[in-house]
Amino acid sequence: MVKLMSDLEENFKNLPFEEKIKIMDKMTEKQKRDAFDQVKYICKDYCGKCPSYEGTGETNLAFCSIGKSSLIKEEKGCLCGQCPISKQMSLRWVNYCTQGSALELSKAGK
Ligand code: SF4
Ligand code: SF4
Fold first, then answer.
1. Ligand 1 pocket, 97 CB below 6 A?
2. pTM: predicted TM-score of the whole model, two decimal places
3. Which pLDDT tens digit goes with each residue over 31-49?
């Protein structure tokens, strides 16, 4: 059982973003809410400290999930590449606050 779990985890780790999001879509609403809270918690240390974010009055987080910010207009550097969520979800883009969510960027073929 433990081996099976670690195999599943190993498989998940190597999947592209598009496959991971399909799996996560099957989670319960509570699981989705908890996962989103966790993303926001981690994001505080990246978006929250990013030069594009600071001083804009923005208080939202997790733009890879929620999409563009209505307050951030200038790209002054992006810390998403260093954020563990990028690795965890196989995110391959940056500047979600100005460019849109990972799902939108994927659907746009970017
Ligand atoms: S998405 Fe990137 S550029 Fe935008 S606030 Fe977050 S770290 Fe900064
Ligand atoms: S990838 Fe970027 S937007 Fe997403 S949680 Fe990390 S820092 Fe925030």
1. yes
2. 0.92
3. 999 999 999 999 999 999 9
